[in-house]
């Protein structure tokens, strides 16, 4: 009596099964690539935002650091014979503060101040006793200039001509002293503005002599981190940072 032979049937994958597996695998790869691309885009945008915030913070810190050195030049008098009691002032074309909102002074992009410290030449600051017997005053201005290579607006500290009783608020720069850059690539892109950027620094007086100092920074000036974002149609980041500086005495006019 013979033993029946059991045939072993080896069954492979059908064409349909292979196509289904390939389709699912391709879909998973596409989803993973999209997730990776989105993650890299967010990392790039976050790094750009951090850089923009750093630029704005640097500008505000430098402004406040120099304003902290201000002292009223009490040894000077204006052409009317009045003692100069303000250490910080804004351009003369703005109005004196008025509680009426319709007559508030217009914002400006310049801050001028007096200080006994010669910030730009490296000279040692005189001692307190020497300042009492022989007061020394220097006039400086913090303002904007067009950025290098048309990249935003640069914030600079410039020395003015030495103040005198005849001209306690000089309007002419001391060209013998090189300015110092406090921040670079500020401003909001605006094709209608001079240099293509505006509002890198906005200063406005408030009540009690306080200054509202605002800097605007745009990621349009960052050449590396956000190039891919802009080519994908993302609008540049614009961050506005505002600080209120309150002088120790009422010395803003």
| Large-scale geometry | rod-shaped
Mean pLDDT: 77
Radius of gyration: 31 Å
By oligomeric state, this entry counts as single chain
Strand content: 15-25%
Please identify the structural class as seen in this structure.
alpha+beta
Helix percent band:
25-40%
> Count of helical segments?
3
* Integer tally of domains: 1
Characterize the main sheet: 5 strands, antiparallel
Order of neighbouring strands in the sheet with most strands: 1-2-3-4-5
Poorly predicted ranges (pLDDT <50, ≥5 residues)? Answer: 93-103, 225-233
Q: Whole-Å distance between the termini?
A: 123 Å
Would you count the extended β strands for me? 10
Element pattern in H and E: HEEHEEEEEEEHE
List strands and helices in order, with pairings.
Elements: H1 15-67, E1 88-89, E2 111-115, H2 128-133, E3 138-146, E4 153-159, E5 180-186, E6 188-189, E7 197-198, E8 201-205, E9 211-218, H3 227-231, E10 238-245
Antiparallel strand pairs: 1-2, 2-3, 3-4, 4-5, 6-7, 8-9, 9-10
